[in-house]
Each structure stands twice: as C-alpha cells, then as structure tokens.
Amino acid sequence: METVTPRLLNILAVAAVLSLAACASSQKAPATADVAVSRNAVDNAVSAGAADLAPAEINMARSKMMRANEALAAKDYVLARQLATEAQADAKLAQSKASSAKANAAANALDADLRVLREEVDRNR
User: Fold this and answer.
1) Which residues make Cβ contacts (< 8 Å) with residue 64, sequence separation at least 6?
2) Which of 94, 76, 93, 88 is nearest to 37 (CA)?
3) Cα 107 from Cα 103, distance rounded (Å)
4) pLDDT tens, 61-120?
5) CB neighbours of residue 53 within 10 Å
6) What are the DSSP calls for the chain, one per residue?
7) What is the pTM of this model?
8) What distance in Å separates the CA atoms of residue 122 and residue 99, rounded to the nearest whole number?
C-alpha cells in the first residue's frame, strides 16, 4: 500500500503538469480564427451602414483589427486574440448603433407621414 501512494502522487503530478501545459499552449496557438471572426464582424457592421451611422465605433473596430493582424504577424497570439475580441465587440456595437439609427429614421419618417395624413383628415372635416 505504501508504494501505491507515491506512484499515485506521481501520476497526479504528471497529469497536473500536462493540463497546465495544454492551457498554456492554447494561449500561444495562432489566433487566426479570432482575427477572422473580428474581420467578419467588421464587414457585417460596414454592410449595415456603420461607416456612415457609427463612424467612431467602426473606426475603433478597424483599428483594433489591424493591430490584431500586426500582433498575429509578430506571433504575439495573446495580444492578437485580445485585440480581435475587442474589435469584434466594437464592430457589434457599431452594427447595433447603425441598425438603431436606421430604425429611428424609419420611425421618424412614419411619424411624418402620419402627421401629414392627420392634417389632410382635419382639412376635409
């Protein structure tokens, strides 16, 4: 029984070291997918009109995406992943602001149309 305990401790120690190594290596793995996702998010935001309706947010997203690409090229995968995640969040914010601005414009146009119709009805009374 005494020989089993040290062997078990050695196995647990090796397992712990391997799991820590796996976690560390995932942080060093290329962040190519993260950068690609952020690029897609920026493209979607631009397609939604963010360049005109949320220029500050889309410019921030583009800047972070470019810096993420630079970090990826420099093999700083942790920074590349962080910047890609931030770029994606900024792009989603830009897209949301653009969509909101479009919805507000449509609502204002509808209100104006309703106002014209009410004036016509009031004149015909």
Assistant:
1) 38, 83, 84, 86, 87, 90
2) 88
3) 6
4) 999 999 999 999 999 999 999 999 999 999 999 999 999 999 999 999 999 999 999 999
5) 20
6) -TTHHHHHHHHHHHHHHHHHHHHHHHHHS--HHHHHHHHHHHHHHHHTTHHHHSHHHHHHHHHHHHHHHHHHHTT-HHHHHHHHHHHHHHHHHHHHHHHHHHHHHHHHHHHHHHHHHHHHHHHT-
7) 0.69
8) 35
Whole-number Å distance between alpha carbons of 71 and 120: 62
One-letter identity of residue 10: N
Which position has the token pair 């090796």?
14
